[in-house]
Each structure stands twice: as C-alpha cells, then as structure tokens.
Write a structure and sequence with these properties.
- By secondary structure, the protein is an alpha+beta fold.
- Helices cover 33% and strands 30% of the residues.
- It is built from 8 helices and 12 strands.
- Strands 1-2-3-4-5-12-6-11-10-9-8-7 form a 12-stranded mixed β-sheet, with helices on both faces.
- Helix 1 crosses helix 2.
- The two termini are 32 Å apart.
C-alpha cells in the first residue's frame, strides 16, 4: 500500500473500511457503489478471484475516488473521481498484473475518459455497451399515481420465492442483460430482509420491485418487473410507489432508481410519481 495514489485489493473488508465514509458523503450519486460497499459483509454473493476494489488518496491523505469491480461486472466508479485518479487508474491496474476489466461504468464523462485511456494503453477500441445507458433518478417530489392502479402492495414471503426467481430471470431477458448468477439466494435474502415488494390484484401477484438496504441514508429501487399479461394497468407505478415508501419507512432519506434511457415509457412512469433526474451513467466495454 502506498501513502498516496491508488490502492487495489481483493479484500472486500479493507475496501469497505477505507471507502465507506468517503462514499457516504454523496449517498445519491454513489448509490450503486455505496450499496456494494455497505453490503459486502452480508451479501449472499460469493467472492470471486477476479474481484478488485480500489481507492485513491492524494498526498494529504484525502480520498478522491473509489471503485468496485465484482466479476463479471465492470469497474464501477463512485460519483467523485479526481482527474489525477482517472488518469492513473488504467496504468496502475495493468501494472498490478490483473487481466483488463470487462469495462468501466459511471458518470458518462469520467467513465468514457478512463475507458479511452485504457483502450489506448492496450491498443483496443471501446464503445458504450448496449442497454447500459442509464439515468439516475431520486424520489424528490413524491406524487401518488394520478390514477391509482387496482390492487395493493405487500411484502413478499417465502412462498413467493420460486415465482420471484422466474420473474428475476424474465427481467434480465427483457432488459437484454446476461443473467449473472442463480437468483434464488438473492431473492431469498431480499424476502427474509423484508425488501421485496409485490403488487397484487385479487390476491394474484401482478408486479414486483425491491429496494436495497439503507446505506448512509440512501436506498435504491431495483428489479421493477410486470409480466407481459399484466402490463399497461399501472402496476409498475403502484409497486414502485409502495417500495419507495417501504424504504422510507426503513429509514431511507433518499430513494433512487435507474432507468434505461432507451425506454421512454419507464422514464415517464417514474417521473409521474415524483422521481427527478440526477445524472446519466453509462457502461463502456472494450472491443
């Protein structure tokens, strides 16, 4: 470990100890990486040999950047990345002997800058990854759905796990994403932690959403899914509204979510119930 510059490690606990205070300064912008850092000790995910975490410190001992790269995901940057940290990261990573990462994800400008530097270093090309151009929203002006959908929200229970695993897989397919792991342990963990919501009509589940554990006052809505036969009835807005309020009741001061910029329907739905844009984020992959 150096006195300044980048520290790279596969030790998740060391990363959490070093970075949590820094990441907590911006719980909205850092929602993804903060959730990773805060959940490292409790996540059902098994560590991989390729996992890498890093933080950058200036000569005065102040943190200026952090990232988490949990295989098979890209280098996921925090919201604050100093220019020096961005400039130094590709060379420091390659000098460590690690294989190049799958890609770089974060705020559009800084993620592309780092991806471009990495590509030049290795003689590669890079591009924005399909289905990964996203917009971060914050639940800034809660507004109930103008036409309340039929039904109501409820917390999922153990009997719902098998169905939710199928819905998780369908969610990834609909988004054009690769399924990164067996969903069962993750769904079960969310259910046991009371972070998995269902929208039901006449007792039948028709949509779902979940939220991350509260970290530094922030929580993020994920996995909003409605099976095709139940779409166009407002259930997604209803279950998102329910999940956001459940997160607030659990102590969240900020509730966020990401939307696909290529999906105008979802962007409009969330804005109608009070989510407001914060920043755009993109994943860049090497070619």
């Amino acid at each position: 470990m150096t006195d300044h510059g980048w520290t790279l490690t596969g030790d998740a606990s060391a990363f959490a100890d070093a970075s949590l205070e820094f990441l907590s300064l911006d719980p909205v912008g850092n929602t993804i990486i903060l959730g990773i850092a805060a959940g490292l000790r409790t996540s059902p995910r098994q560590p991989r040999e390729q996992d890498c975490y890093g933080w950058w410190v200036d000569e005065e001992g102040r943190l200026g950047a952090a990232f988490a790269a949990q295989y098979p995901y890209p280098v996921t940057l925090g919201a604050q990345v100093s220019e020096r940290a961005a400039a130094e990261l590709p060379a420091v990573w390659q000098a460590s002997g690690r294989d190049r990462p799958i890609g770089v994800a974060g705020g559009v400008r800084v993620a592309e800058d780092i991806a471009a530097r990495w590509a030049r270093l290795l003689g590669l090309s890079y591009r924005a990854k399909a289905n990964h151009e996203m917009r971060l929203f914050s639940f800034a002006e809660p507004t109930p759905p103008d036409t309340a959908p039929a039904g109501h929200g409820r917390l999922a229970g153990p009997a719902d796990v098998a169905m939710l695993c199928e819905w998780d897989l369908a969610f990834f397919r609909d988004c054009g994403l690769t399924v990164p792991h067996d969903p069962e342990p993750f769904v079960r963990a969310r259910v046991l932690d009371r972070r998995q919501l269902l929208w039901t009509r006449g007792g039948e589940p028709v949509a779902c959403a979940n939220f991350t554990g509260v970290a530094a006052g922030g929580s993020r809505i994920t996995g909003v899914y409605t099976p095709p036969e139940h779409r166009r009835h407002g259930y997604a807005a209803g279950v998102t509204w329910a999940a956001a309020h459940e997160a607030l009741a659990r102590g969240a001061e900020h509730v966020m979510l990401h939307t696909d910029l290529a999906n105008p329907t979802s962007n409009a739905i969330y804005q109608r119930i009070g989510f407001r844009p914060v920043r755009d984020v993109t994943e860049f992959e090497f070619v």
